[in-house]
Design goal:
Layout (H helix, E strand, L loop, with lengths): L2 H18 L13 H29 L2 H25 L3 H16 L8 H4 L9 H7 L7 E4 L3 E4 H14 L8 H18 L1 H10 L3 H17 L15 H15 L2
Antiparallel strand pairs: 1-2
Length: about 260
């Protein structure tokens, strides 16, 4: 995932959501297991407050920005292997060629992806995973599902996560247990550090964080599945100023990809 792009999307969405949502949310048909999901969300939040966030803050404080960026680039480059396979499974052959070129350039000239040479040469970063592949094959979301320690997902995307994580991700093929788990831990801390600002905004908003995270998850997934052009589900009524602002900001951010 292009973290900076989706952090901006979340920030824009949150500012509108906070100003217009009702204080009590109606039941969501996408979330039939809400009681269980809220319990897991509380577990995750407790773990994050006790361990995840403090470690991420220390990580961000200690590491110079160029080093932190290099680590993020390294893991992003590994993730491009997953992107390429799912490009092919979705018959996006031109995009697969572009992503393979990106992987090759960053792995070689970018020193195993530490330096994002491809972006500097206008080779775009894409985001594809097996959850999106299943969606393009006609598989529905299924129920919303909060995974322990991993956060928001759905039945379909959880299946995709297993496929990508166990079969495609290069870290899974590291034979040394200490190195493999060290890389997994570093990737988790790096990802959490990239979302610190989003957490601060969410805490200050006063909205129900569970509902916001769920709605933001579905919004982001729709944008990913439809490559930034999801079909509109709004009936033909006069759009509000908030609707127009959100659509304009999302379009601007997605064009930055």
């Amino acid at each position: 995932m292009n973290t900076l792009k989706y952090l901006k999307i979340i920030t824009v969405s949150l500012s509108i959501f906070a100003s217009s949502c009702a204080t009590v949310s109606a039941p969501d048909e996408r979330d039939p297991w809400e009681s269980m999901n809220r319990s897991i969300y509380s577990l995750n939040d407790g773990f994050d407050r006790a361990i995840g966030r403090p470690v991420a803050e220390a990580y961000q404080f200690i590491l110079p920005n160029p080093v932190e960026t290099g680590i993020s680039n390294f893991f992003s480059n590994l993730g491009d292997v997953i992107v390429i396979v799912n490009d092919l499974l979705q018959f996006k052959f031109y995009q697969a060629a572009s992503d393979f070129t990106r992987l090759l350039m960053n792995t070689t000239f970018g020193v195993f992806g530490i330096f994002d040479i491809a972006s500097q040469m206008d080779v775009p970063k894409h985001n594809e995973d097996f959850g999106q592949t299943l969606a393009t094959w006609g598989v529905g979301d299924g129920a919303y599902l909060v995974l322990p320690f991993l956060g928001p997902s759905s039945v379909r995307d959880s299946t995709g996560l297993i496929f990508d994580g166990f079969l495609l991700h290069p870290i899974g093929y590291v034979t040394d247990d200490e190195v493999r788990w060290g890389l997994i831990a570093l990737a988790a801390v790096d990802k959490r550090a990239s979302l610190l600002e989003a957490s601060r905004i969410l805490e200050k908003s006063g909205v129900d964080p569970y509902v916001f995270v769920r709605d933001a998850y579905y919004q982001i997934r729709q944008n990913q599945i439809y490559d930034g052009n999801p079909p509109t589900t709004r009936t033909y009524t006069e759009p509000t100023k908030e609707d127009l602002l959100l659509e304009d900001e999302l379009e601007k951010e997605l064009q930055l990809q």
